[in-house]
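Internal ticket - ligand job 310, adenosine-5'-triphosphate:
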Amino acid sequence: MIRTVTLNPALDKTLEINNFEIDDVNRVSSVRIDAGGKGINVSKLIKILGGRSKAFGILSGRNGDYIKEYLDKAEIENDFVYAEGETRTNLKIIDSIRHTNTDINEPGPYVPYDKIKELERKIFGAIGENAVLVLSGSIPKSVSTDIYYRWIDMAKKLKVRVVLDCDGELLKKGIKAEPYLIKPNINELEELLGRKVSGMDDMIKSARELLRSGIEVVVLSLGSDGALFVKDGCTIHAKGVRVDVKSTVGAGDSMVAALAFALDEGMSFEKAAALSAAAGTAKVTTSGSQPPSMDKIMSIERLVKLDYIK
Ligand SMILES: Nc1ncnc2c1ncn2[C@@H]1O[C@H](COP(=O)(O)OP(=O)(O)OP(=O)(O)O)[C@@H](O)[C@H]1O
Ligand SMILES: [Mg+2]
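stdout (structure tokens):
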């Protein structure tokens, strides 16, 4: 079974505003509220793929209650720790006339150390060998940036495979504990390596370099250019599929969900590449943080072309 962790969840409030203007009164044409945060998004997509996951994390206040109810209703298993304060609200303003997506993200509440320890006990409680643990997204300001490093280290000792999707210090420190799989995008890879990465050859070389640090699988997501899937002895480029783009928000989460699902199901590397590229692409066809349907994912999967790179 897959476990996902969301240390800084959010209530995603998506507002559709035509001709959105700063410094003016704007009229909202539709409002949508979703339980969000990277780990929660991953759990939602695993459910759509027909898999099972349990969502872990920290919730606070009324927004926290809303998220808990949302997950229960969606029949996504969950076990959250409750802390003081209020889970953040992330505002997403979509303007379909001007084709803009504006995100206004709150920082989230202060989370004390004892709550993190309580969460740690839940995450690792009765976890079986070969389980898949997804560590993704940002963390509260009060939490140390070596948190994912520590949890990857603990997971490895229990033979649990970690899928890591984060950036900055979290990623830099996290990879030192040798997670099973990482899924940076180009910006995250460049930040990690401290240099520009340009052209396919450089991307392949850089991803292979990361394997040498003990990571089993590197998935480099390339937005509309698809993704590179690299493991020892095999490199695949899933070419981008052209679709009608509504919102690219959460494309990476969709891809991570499919990768975790593929690992848990024991799928081949090729199948994992095609499915996760399709899941990421299917996401960009929906607006806001709405997850794509299984039908959409499957129809796109048929269009994904895999290039095997020597
Ligand atoms: N514009 C697009 N057209 C087609 N496919 C896309 C597009 N954007 C993303 N994808 C698909 O989704 C995958 C993940 O997208 P991307 O590289 O943007 O991830 P990300 O930057 O991590 O996103 P996130 O904002 O969720 O963190 C890509 O590898 C690709 O397969
Ligand atoms: Mg991402």
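Auto-summary: The radius of gyration is 19 Å. The chain has one domain: 2-309.
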